[in-house]
Amino acid sequence: MSLPQSPSETRSASLDLSSYWGSALALIAGAVYPLAFAPLNWWPIAPLAVAAFYMCMQHSLTARQAMWRGWLFGFGLFGVGTSWVWISMHRYGDTSVALATLLTALFCAALALFFVIQAALHHRIAKNQLWAYLGFPAVWVVSELIRTYLLTGFPWLLLGYSSLSTLWQGWSPVLGVYGLSALFALAGVGLAKLIQPEAGDRRLPAILVIVIPALLGLLLFTLQWTKPTTQTPLKVMLVQGNIEQNAKWHPDSAMPTIERYETMTQKAWSGPALVVWPETAIPALLNDAYSVMTPFADDLYQRQSALISGVMTRVEKEGKRSYHNSLVVLGDGLGLYHKRHLVPFGEYVPLESVLRGLIAFFDLPMSQFSKGDLNQPELTAMGHKISASICYEVAYPDLMRRSVGDADILLTVSNDTWFGGSFARYQHLQMVQMRALEVGRPMVRATNDGMTAVIDHQGRITQQLEPFRAGVLTEEVQGYEGQTPYMRWGDWPLIILSVLLTLAGMLVRRRQV
């Protein structure tokens, strides 16, 4: 006959995460993790979800169990956080409900493998208190970096983005988004040790790894890493056309679309300004649109103004023809920018000879672009140097950092119609805010149907248009100059430190065994 358990023994048994409860917690933690990001911005969920994941890893009895829990966490995370892929496939890719659901599930399942890698690495790291604080954040950063650069990369929902508008965000110009991920992962370990302390754990270190980085972040946010230029603020007009995606590429839609943007611009005109139209706002090749755009460009020049617009371009080089997703400057300015990081399936088809024509989603309009050169000069407009990017490129911190050069203003255009009404467009804007904060420059962003906005050099949205409605946003933007620590050093110090700590933790664990 067994003795009845005491209340303390009952509580201890209920917290046994070595059983199937640990796997269930991993899945739940991953599923709630995206709620920490825009538009909800319930940021405390991020370190709490990380704490739950850490506890699941610590209580995994075998490497196989740890990797299974890593996959469950990742599947919950991407299943909720990137469910918008279904909208892109079904609504705009003309894929059936069943096939879109299957492909989205496979997409999320594949992305979850990154957390399998993370779990496998963590399982091989020493499990004492010191290596918990050093090793877990290091492995988290290594995993995010692998997810960013492996194959074409998918740096969506990086942990550091959830720290915007928190005390920790002051670290952004110093460490970048991956550094913020490390600090939030560290806070997650601290929370885990406060929630479910292990043998030998002390509460004071757990509290300090949360409080000290937060207070230092508050101090760092008061520092001005960059300064305003002596130039007069630039007046910008961001035009949000709200063109229906399914009608945009119809052969008869090109002229009405261009006329719509011109009319909206003319009605909102109130003096010299930089006008920005969104990604592929001109739904035709630049070579063919020049004759149509020339009168408008001449008018811009006469008004001491400029237009930067998304457009498709054709380039002939050494007998080869290529097409690009581009930005062109017309009027009082100069420059042509070709997108450097393309979206798989949306702008090019991997394994094209096999997949092209297999289903409608693999044959989307304008899915045969070539990427532009990595190093391209800044655009110039009305005396300002502008660092340009298109859509998905803002997800790559190092690409954006190396593109700033002497620019005093950042500019990005996008067509987030593919996301429908999902959270993805808000998460995309959150990335834009982080890029502005990392390099200490204001960012202007024009989109087809939202989120068109102006962001200041500290990553704050100063003005924004309502999504899904046509409109023009007008604001004066002050250029900034100088370099943040992140602009000077990039991610390399953090990459080297994270890799070394991961390897050291594995070596210590091996010697302990």
UniProtKB/TrEMBL annotation:
Chain's role: Catalyzes the phospholipid dependent N-acylation of the N-terminal cysteine of apolipoprotein, the last step in lipoprotein maturation.
Membrane topology: Multi-pass membrane protein
Lineage: Bacteria, Pseudomonadati, Pseudomonadota, Gammaproteobacteria, Oceanospirillales
A Pfam cross-reference name: LNT_N
Origin superkingdom: Bacteria
InterPro entries reported in the protein's UniProt record: Apolipo_AcylTrfase, C-N_Hydrolase, C-N_Hydrolase_sf, LNT_N
CDD domains on file: ALP_N-acyl_transferase
This protein's record includes keyword Repeat: no
Gene it is expressed from: lnt
Family listed: Belongs to the CN hydrolase family. Apolipoprotein N-acyltransferase subfamily.
Name by which UniProt lists this protein: Apolipoprotein N-acyltransferase
Transmembrane stretches, start-end: 20-36, 68-87, 99-121, 130-150, 170-192, 204-225, 489-508
Keywords of this entry: Acyltransferase, Cell membrane, Membrane, Transferase, Transmembrane, Transmembrane helix
Gene3D superfamilies: Carbon-nitrogen hydrolase
E.C. numbers: 2.3.1.269
Recorded metabolic or biological pathway in which this protein acts: Protein modification; lipoprotein biosynthesis (N-acyl transfer)
Subcellular location: Cell membrane
Domain CN hydrolase stretches: 239-479
